[in-house]
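In this section we walk through a basic example: taking a raw amino acid sequence and producing a predicted 3D structure, encoded as discrete structure tokens. The instruction is simple. Fold the sequence below.
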Amino acid sequence: MTGAPSERGAEVGRRIGVGLMYGLWKPRVLGAWKVPATGPVILAVNHSHNIDGPMVIGVAPRPSHFLVKKEAFVGPLDPFMRAVGQLKVDRSTADRTAITQALGVLENGGVLGIFPEGTRGEGDFASLRAGLSYFAVRSGAPIVPVAVLGSSEKPGRLIKALPPLRHRIDVVFGDPFEADDGSGRRTRKALDEATERIQKQLSGHLENARRLTGR
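The resulting token sequence is shown next.
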């Protein structure tokens, strides 16, 4: 099994990310102060574009370790992404190594980033996978919802797959909340109920973020 991801590496990744994101686009970050300054935290991010992860890694107030699909770890990106503390996950199976590493991040008081919809899509939190509720209930870490808005609008002329250069992208952090109902249950039913509660919170945050930003 591979070792725990490096906190120092994640901080290097954050610095690279912030330079890139502010160099290429115009991030507007709202509510970053809501992310707890210490202790374990899960960032739950909506996902409509490939730059959403690097954007949040760059603008988050703390270094973060994202669960990233293994398909993204190609060629020279593989050692780089590992070096900056990101977690490779095989989505086709219950990836025990990734699960153990993710729980390790939280046990060490770090920040775990998750795209709870699993795949890049509408970015509206419409269908959540159980992974987020599992990590939240198992670790007791608060969830901070994060809405990335504007990343999927109008692809740029220079690089078709990316937003136009210097385009404004809003990143809105929400209030932390607990997924657990306080019963201490970890049954499938408890996880399903937690997933429902989480979905309501995330969808509500996304609505608020859209109102706030006019997106």
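Looking at the output, two observations stand out. Helices lie at 7-24, 52-59, 77-83, 96-107, 131-139, 188-213. The radius of gyration is 16 Å. In the next section we compare this with other chains.
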